[in-house]
Amino acid sequence: MKLLCTDVSPLAHPRLWDRALACSLPARKAYALSYRFPKDQWLSLAAGLLLCNLLRDEGLEPEAAGLQFSHAVKPGLPGHPGWHFSLSHSGSIAVCMLGRVPCGVDAEAWSSFEGYDPGFILAPEEEHLLEGVRAQNRPALLARIWTRKEAFLKCLGIGLAVEPRELSVPPSRKVFVQEGRRLALKDYCLDGYGLAACLPEGVPFPERQSIGMEALVASLEGRVLRQA
Fold first, then answer.
1. Cβ contacts of residue 29 below 8 Å, gap of 6+?
2. What is the distance, to the nearest Å, from the Cα of residue 19 to the centroid of all Cα atoms in its chain?
3. What's the chain's average pLDDT?
4. What distance in Å separates the CA atoms of residue 150 and residue 93, rounded to the nearest whole number?
5. Mean pLDDT across the stretch 184-210?
6. Beta pairing class for 2-7 and 93-99
7. All structural domains of the chain with their residue ranges
8. Is 188 helix (H, G, I), strand (E, B) or coil?
9. How many Å apart are CA 117 and CA 163, to the nearest integer?
10. Could you tell me whether strands 93-99 and 181-190 are parallel, antiparallel, or unpaired per DSSP bridges?
11. C-beta neighbour count of 211 within 10 angstroms
């Protein structure tokens, strides 16, 4: 398994944005540009670039993956059987996990949960987690719990088909059973964000790696040139 993260902020520079578009998969490019606001486009495109980078690190051609992106269907890798991935983005970061087993990853900015109703997120047995937590620290806690739930549901392949408050995955527990599957959760440290990953129990969690956006784009451009 590999987990790769990037800060998308440099894509605000038009020249780098044009270069990123040029080395993106056509399906991901179209998907990213379907967003209305530039920042959402940067986040979506960057997540796709991370996936391309990880695929090529494994000797797999992104162009042969058969990827199709839609807001309604979870994408897979039909051209590379036996490989699985998960994408997420929030705030100014994008993340991608890739490996040989089903996986889920989710990132959420703490700021997304300022003034958020915890009743929408917390299961009844999780409500005690807010006891003694200062108001200014609640967004970080809610982001942590939310990302655990999202990563868990992504690993199952069902997304938010389950209401967040109907799922209990407290940080005090690491392994959970759902639909006959034993899944493990891990929280990663990333200042200003909740970041969690989910894998089948017994599969080692990868270390989180980071790559700068300039380096990511340059790496993909270099590989395209070598193939030409």
1. 21, 45, 48
2. 23
3. 92
4. 16
5. 97
6. antiparallel
7. 1-101+205-228, 102-202
8. strand
9. 14
10. unpaired
11. 16
> In this model, does residue 228 exceed pLDDT 50?
no
What stretches of the chain show up as alpha helix (H) in DSSP? 14-22, 26-33, 38-57, 138-156, 213-227
How much of the chain is helix, strand and coil, in % rounded to 5? 45, 20, 35
Q: Do the bridges between strand 175-178 and strand 193-200 make them parallel or antiparallel, or are there none, so unpaired?
A: unpaired
Let me know how long the chain is: 228
Please give the helix or strand (H or E) that residue 100 lies within, else none: none
pTM, to two decimals: 0.93
State the pLDDT at residue 74. Answer: 74
Q: So what's the pLDDT on residue 160?
A: 66
Fold for 102-202, please state it.
Ribosomal Protein L22; Chain A (3.90.470)
Q: Does CATH place domain 1-101+205-228 in 2.30.30.40?
A: no
For residue range 132-141, list pLDDT tens digits in order. Answer: 899 999 999 9
Residues with Cβ within 8 Å of residue 149, at least 6 apart in sequence? 121, 164, 167, 169
Question: How far is residue 168's CA from residue 149's CA, in Å, rounded to a whole number?
Answer: 8
